[in-house]
C-alpha cells in the first residue's frame, strides 16, 4: 500500500531541462572557454548533486564553477522553467485522496522554493528534502529515508519517482518502491538497467499505480 510519494523535482515535476543544460554550457564556456562538451555528456550529469558534477572537471576550483552555474541559473530560471503536462492535476488528486507528498531533490532549497512557487505547486507538498537536510545525498537512500521520517510513513509504503538513475537508486537504497518517468532526457535503455518497479509516460499514470 502506497501511503506517500517522494518526487524528484527537475525533469520529473517541472521541466528545467533546457535551464540546466544551458547553465552547464554557460559555466564551461565562461570558465574553460570550452564549447566542445556535448549535450549528451552534460545530460549524464542530470540528477546528481552539482558539487559532484563539477568535481569531474576541476576538483581544485569546484566552488568557482558552482558560483558561475548558480548565477546563470538564477537569472534564467523563470524564463526557462516550464510545466509538464498533467502534474498539477495529478498532485491535486493525490492530495485529495490522502496520499502524503514530498520533494526529494539534489537542488538547493532556495531554488526548489522558487520553482514550486513559480508554477504554484508548493501547496501540495508536506515535506521538502534538499542537500541541506542530509549528510549523504542521492544515490544514497538517506534523502528518501529523511522524507519518510518527516511524513511519518514506512519507506516500504512509499514510492520514489524520478527521471534519473540517482532517483531509482535513492529509492531502492531506502527500501521504497521506485518509478521512472519515460519522458526523461537521459538514455531510457540505460536507466532501465536499474530495474525501476514502475515506469510512466505521463504523471497521470501515477494514479493507476496508487
Short summary:
This protein has 210 residues and is α/β, with parallel strands linked by helices. 45% of the residues lie in helices and 14% in strands. The protein has ten helices and eight strands.
What is the topology, as strand order, of the major beta sheet?
5-4-1-6-7-8
Which runs of at least 5 residues are low in confidence (pLDDT < 50)?
none
What spatial form do the alpha-carbon principal axes imply? globular
How confident overall, as mean pLDDT? 96
Number of strands: 8
Class based on secondary structure composition and strand pairing: alpha/beta
CATH top level of the largest domain is Alpha Beta
Q: Helix and strand succession?
A: EEHHHHEHEHEHEHEHEH
N→C terminal distance: 8 Å
Please indicate the percent range of residues in DSSP E strands (runs of 2 or more): 5-15%
Tally of separate helices: 10
Report the sheet with the most strands, covering strand number, pairing sense and barrel closure: 6 strands, parallel
Residues in helix, %: 40-55%
CATH homologous superfamily designation of the largest domain: HAD superfamily/HAD-like
What is the second-level CATH architecture of the largest domain?
3-Layer(aba) Sandwich
